[in-house]
Amino acid sequence: MAYINEHYLKLKAGYLFPEIGRRVTAFSQANPQARVIRMGIGDVTEPLPPAVCQAMHKAVDEMADRSTFRGYGPEQGYDFLRQAIAQGDYQSRSADISADEIFVSDGSKCDSANLLDVLGERNRIAVTDPVYPVYVDTNVMAGHTGSADDKGEYSGLTYLRTTAGNHFIAEPPQQAVDVVYLCSPNNPTGTALTRQLLSRWVEYARKNNTLILYDAAYEAYITEPEIPHSIYEIDGAREVAIELRSFSKLAGFTGVRCAFTVIPKALKGRTPNGEVVDLHRLWGRRHTTKFNGVSYITQRGAEAVYSPAGRQQVKSLVDFYMENAAIIRQNLRELGLGVFGGINAPYVWMKTPGQLSSWEFFDRLLHEAHVVGTPGSGFGASGEGYLRLSAFNSRENVNEAMNRIKQLKL
Ligand code: MLT
C-alpha cells in the first residue's frame, strides 16, 4: 500500500461548495416540487459574448484544416493573447507589465494552489478571515500548517480578521509575514481595497520582504474610481506582488477555463541560506514542466474579449450582474439587514437576522424560501453570522428570490 500525504487528513470536512451542493440535493430530492434558486456558488449564468463565440468558431475552423491546424501551443500562452492582456489590462492603466510576464492558465483557483510549488516550507503565511477557502486548504495540503482547532483555524497561519468593525477590509498587520493572500474585490465579502490602502500594503510588503499573492479575479466588477484594478497600478508593486486574473467571471468562462498569472521579472524569492532567486524563472520552469497550455480555441476566445466589440459585450454582461447586485442590496436593506459588498463585486455579504448562525440561516433560506446562499462561516470563523449571496443569476430569479426572502418573517 502506498503512503499518503497525511496533511490531507488535517482538512476539515469537505470543500465548502460540494457540501452546499449535498444539502441542496437532499432538499430537492425530498421536495421535488420546490423551484430552488441558487445564489450560492458564484457561477455565471449568461452565455458567452458573441465576439468570443465568433472567435472560437473561427479557431475551430482553423483546427479543422491541415494548413492552419495547431498542436501543442506555448505552455505560457500564445503571444497574441499575452500581448492583448499586457496592453489591455496593464499598459492601458500605466501598469508596467510586459507580455512575457504573463502566464496563461486554466484557472485562478489552480494557479493560486500551484504557486505553492515554487514557495518554500518555512514561510509565515497570512490570510484574511473570512477568506476564499482554497488559499487555506491548499496550504494545509502542502504541509504549511499544523492542525485545525475547534473553530477550524489552523496553527501556523496568521489570520487577519475582517469584520463589520473594519468594514471587512484587511489592514497590514503589525508583525512581519513572508506571504499574504489579498483578494480584491473580495470573495466572499464583496468589499475592495482602495488605492490608498493598497499602497499601504505594498509599502508593508517592501519593508518586510513580503510576497503579496493578489487575487483580482473580480476586477471587472469595480465601479468606483478610487479602487485600483491591478496591484501594479501601485508604485513598487512589481518587486513584491504576483497577480491572478481570470476570464471566468469577466466573460462567462467558468466552463471554458482560461485565466492568467502575472509574475514580474523584478520579483525575487530566497533560499534558506540567503541566495536570491528569480520567481519568474522558477514559475516558468514549473509551468513548462507541469502544464501543456490552454487550448488554442479558448485562447482565441479570450483574445476576443479585448476587441472593441468584445469589450462592449463584456461590459454589458458585467453591468447586468451588477444590476442584480444592486437589486439584492436594495431589497436586503429594505428588510433592515446589514449589507456589505455588491458595489465593486458580484457578491453581497449580509448579516443573518437576529442571532441566527450562518448555517441556520442557510437552512431557513433553503427550506422556507428555496433560495441557496453560501454560509459565511464556511469562509472562516469571522464569517459566522453572515451569508453570501451571488449576483450571478437571471433577473427573473433574482427578483423572485428577493420576493421570497421578503415574505419570510425575519
Ligand atoms: C465562489 O463561489 O466563491 C467561486 O465561484 C469559487 C471559485 O471561483 O472558485
What this model shows, in words?
With 410 residues, this protein is α/β, with parallel strands linked by helices. The protein folds into two domains: 135 residues, Aspartate Aminotransferase, domain 1 (Alpha-Beta Complex), CATH 3.90.1150.10; 255 residues, Aspartate Aminotransferase, domain 2 (3-Layer(aba) Sandwich), CATH 3.40.640.10. The protein is built from twelve helices and 15 strands. The chain has a seven-stranded mixed sheet, with helices on both faces. Helix 6 links the parallel strand 5 and strand 6. Helix 3 runs parallel beside helix 9 and helix 10 packs parallel to helix 12. It starts with 15 loop residues before the first helix and ends with a helix. The model has no long low-confidence stretch (mean pLDDT 97). The chain binds D-malate (MLT). D-malate binds next to loops.
